[in-house]
Design goal:
Helix 3 links the parallel strand 2 and strand 3. The radius of gyration is 18 Å and the shape is globular. It starts with 7 loop residues before the first strand and ends with a helix. The protein has 181 residues and is mainly alpha-helical. A three-stranded parallel sheet has the order 1-2-3, sandwiched between helices. The protein is built from four helices and three strands, in the order βααβαβα. The chain has two domains: 134 residues, SGNH hydrolase (Rossmann fold); 30 residues, no CATH class.
């Protein structure tokens, strides 16, 4: 099977790296290393997926790795996805013409556009000096706006059946767009 040129591989990896405290750069390099391995070891066509959004909170011990210092992963997910998209377009598609493509199916999962930089007000954070809220600088969870759609990702990380249907439809459309199906 590894030499089947009609085989399509759908690659979605990296969110656990961010969740375990890896940097944006390390996460991106890891994804690209796996992609390069698959492309070098097989004749398959590879669809590299952007990371889906994460609305879960960072664990305190990992928050030091956040690119923006926020308690959520949105900025890091957007940064990894941007770097992946550029690497696929500028490097992998030249090395492996007609064998690699990139797709970002995350938009339907966000409550607002991830391209918009989140402000403290957007995230329900108050100025630390204000002392407002149960903890200085953090609004109660019930008043913080959601980053991801809970109807598609109830735990703020994993798509449910409706989320998988949207993701699957996006992947099928991407495969059609590149002519692989």
């Amino acid at each position: 099977m590894k030499n089947d040129p009609w085989l399509n591989v759908n690659l979605l990896i990296g969110t656990n790296n961010l969740g375990h405290g890896h940097s944006v750069g390390d996460t991106t390099r890891g994804i690209l290393a796996v992609a390069s391995y698959l492309l070098n070891a097989t004749r398959t066509r590879l669809l590299i997926n952007a990371l889906l959004p994460r609305g879960d909170k960072r664990k305190r011990r990992h928050s030091r790795t956040a690119s923006s210092g926020t308690s959520h992963y949105t900025d890091d997910v957007v940064a990894v996805n941007s770097a992946l998209e550029k690497a696929v377009a500028s490097h992998l598609q030249r090395l492996y013409p007609s064998r690699v493509s990139y797709v970002d199916c995350g938009a339907p999962f966000y409550t607002q556009s991830p391209a918009k930089k989140s402000t403290a007000a957007d995230l329900g954070l108050a100025a630390a000096a204000s002392g407002a809220g149960p903890q200085a600088g953090i609004a109660p969870a019930s008043t913080r706006p959601e980053i991801v759609r809970r109807d598609l990702m109830p735990d703020r990380l994993h798509p449910n059946a409706a989320g998988h249907e949207l993701w699957g439809a996006c992947i099928v459309q991407a495969l059609h767009n590149v002519g692989w199906v």
